[in-house]
Amino acid sequence: MTEVIAGDGAALSEELQAMRAALFPPVAQKVLRSFSSVEAAKLIGIADAYLRQLSLNGKGPQPTISAGGRRSYTLDQINELRAVLDQTSKGKEYVPHRKPGDHCQVMAVVNFKGGSGKTTTAAHLAQYLALQGYRVLAVDLDPQASLTALHGYQPEYDIGSNETMYAAVRYDDHRRPISDVIRKSYIPGLDIVPGNLELMEFEHDTPRALADHSGEPFFGRVATALGSVADNYDVMVLDCPPQLGFLTLGALCASTGLLITAHPQMLDVMSMCQFLLMASDLLSVVQDSGGDLEYDFIRYIVTRYEPSDGPQAQMVGFMRSLFRERVCTNAMLKSTAISDAGLSKQTLYEVGRENFSKSTYDRAIESLDAVNAEIETLIRQAWGRAE
Ligand SMILES: Nc1ncnc2c1ncn2[C@@H]1O[C@H](COP(=O)(O)OP(=O)(O)OP(=O)(O)O)[C@@H](O)[C@H]1O
Ligand SMILES: [Mg+2]
């Protein structure tokens, strides 16, 4: 029986690798698309006409002009434009990096309900922030490694042993600095700590380490690892597994903001209730042992929301009445654009508008942007920037 399972696993892995090679030829590596001048102007926060004027005046990088006369910019060029604008403009800031003294914001995306939209939320938030010009580290803490897969890696094929977060938190001599396992992504400003099945090892090692009292306790290890590279980033986004294991508890202790994803249906909300009760029990034990559990904010994000569905709308109302401002004002709408993009291992920020009917794309991207902008505002408020 085990041979059958192992054989199926190996066959599937090979097939997936071939599918990926076909999808992203010829080097099977993802690259970020470029952005139309309208998109670029919106990302920078200036009018399209002003952006055109800048390029006519020879200021900043020159866009690529297609045969049809359409101007487009890469994200590197957009970041260059932000830096150019910062030199000339008074008051407004275009490069949004944090200032000395502002702490790096660490967002843990959690819930133990599988499929509640954690990875979708984490990936879109991390990419949104990178597109806005922040320096972002996305960390995959889920052995299923969907976040890693979304960023162009096949976890069991491309990520070797001791190349995940496990390497930086393990208890034995093979522990490595997290800087060794950070990879640059194809999105400027976004780095990744990939995951794969070896992350499970931490769940097995920790009871033994607790019994032996060996080294730093489990709940501080994620924080210590992330802290060692915090100077290089403005924001870190941690995609957690659908369970309250030791790694998730470590993520909860490392974070400055909690994002709890919730699909507004009865079974999901009941499961979230169990999650909250269990998390608070476990965290109070951790806190008594010296774990850090101070958060700048906690937000519930409603995911895969269908506002026309009466029971879902009622459930959102129920959550808002209970949790008030802790429920994000904007919800992540259910959209085939988001799930279709996911099928080709992409976020909606990667696929262009031309791949969908315009109304489907616009509706989905507006809802994603609105949720992410809300989180961005919370981050900036934590840095004392009023907006
Ligand atoms: N807003 C949305 N609209 C449509 N489909 C969505 C949306 N958000 C998530 N999905 C789809 O729902 C599925 C589950 O989402 P996701 O992987 O983000 O959940 P998760 O909480 O990370 O799951 P797990 O607990 O297994 O890690 C995916 O197939 C994803 O494409
Ligand atoms: Mg996930």
Descriptive notes:
- The chain has 387 residues and is α/β, with parallel strands linked by helices.
- The protein folds into two domains: 35-88, Multidrug-efflux Transporter Regulator, Chain: A, Domain 2; 105-382, Rossmann fold.
- It has helices at residues 2-23, 37-44, 48-56, 75-88, 118-131, 146-150, 155-158, 165-169, 200-212, 218-227, 246-254, 266-288, 310-323, 336-343, 358-382, and strands spanning 35-36, 64-65, 71-73, 105-110, 136-140, 183-184, 190-193, 235-239, 257-262, 297-302.
- The strands form two sheets. The chain has a seven-stranded mixed β-sheet, with helices on both faces. A three-stranded antiparallel β-sheet has the order 1-3-2.
- Helix 5 (118-131) crosses helix 15 (358-382) and helix 10 (218-227) packs across helix 11 (246-254).
- The longest helix is centred in the last third of the chain and has 25 residues, at 358-382.
- The relative contact order is 0.12.
- Magnesium ion is lined by residues 118-119, 142, 146, 239.
CATH superfamily annotation of the largest domain: P-loop containing nucleotide triphosphate hydrolases
Count of domain modules:
2
Radius of gyration: 21 Å
Got a strand count? 10
- CATH fold-level name of the largest domain: Rossmann fold
- Strand fraction band? 5-15%
Largest sheet: 7 strands, mixed
Element order, helices and strands? HEHHEEHEHEHHHEEHHEHEHEHHH
Alpha-beta classification: alpha/beta
Count of runs of 4 or more consecutive helical residues: 15
CATH architecture designation of the largest domain: 3-Layer(aba) Sandwich
Q: Helical amount among residues, as a percent range? A: 40-55%
Strand ordering within the main sheet = 6-7-5-8-4-9-10
Bound molecules: adenosine-5'-triphosphate, magnesium ion
Mean pLDDT: 92
Distance between the termini: 60 Å
Broad shape: globular
